[in-house]
Amino acid sequence: MGKPAQELLKAKKYDVLISMLTDRFGTDGTAAIWLDAERRLEGFLKTTAKLSSGEQLHAEGTIYPACAIYLAIAERCGRDEAFQIMETFMRTVALEAGAKLQKIVKPRFMRRIFMKGFGVVGSKMFGETAGFEQKLYENKSTHLRMDILACPYLRHCIAADARELAPLFCANDEYAYGNLPGIEFKRAGTLARGNDRCDFELTLKG
């Protein structure tokens, strides 16, 4: 991606978090947190140059910004409260994404289109070129099933000393895909939660 930390932290999704932080720490406190997060993120970005472009998309666009913000918050209130803040923020954003997907697939004809599109995009976004180790069992317009055996989200959270943040990224999938009309999402476990794989299954039901 190659974007500077300051630009990455201007993503619109962080408006929700900035509002939460302002309520808790005030305007000046939030500004200080954001400057600290920017500094931390600049450091993380120095480690991503050798990653594939697909893995950079995840690491620079999602993983390391969240880790940098989390650690900056934790510096002021401890990891327990920082985790709760990040959990609330990430859940809010993922539920909003899920609500948008629900509207898209509400018409029956859109569900098969969504499944086809997800099969194409998912196999790339969560494939080897993006830093994942993936085992694909089935990829059809009615059924998609794959396992993730190695995950850059867990790997980079560990590298950032924010291992505990990794399961929140797993929960994002559940919030986003767990309530789609006519499409069933199943998951038994994830690497970040201590399982031996992240199983991922979408089935067209209607």
N-end to C-end Cα span: 38 Å
What's the number of structural domains? 1
Note poorly predicted spans: none
Shape: globular
Topology:
Elements: H1 5-8, H2 14-45, H3 53-77, H4 79-104, H5 108-125, E1 133-139, E2 143-150, H6 152-159, H7 166-177, E3 183-186, E4 198-204
Antiparallel strand pairs: 1-2, 2-4, 3-4
Question: Which labels suit this protein?
Answer:
alpha+beta; 206 residues
Q: Your description of this structure?
A:
The chain is 61% helix and 13% strand. The chain is α+β, with helices and mostly antiparallel strands and 206 residues long. The chain has one domain (5-204). A 4-stranded antiparallel beta sheet has the order 1-2-4-3. Helix 4 (79-104) packs parallel to helix 7 (166-177). It is globular and about 50 Å long. The chain starts with a helix and ends with a strand.
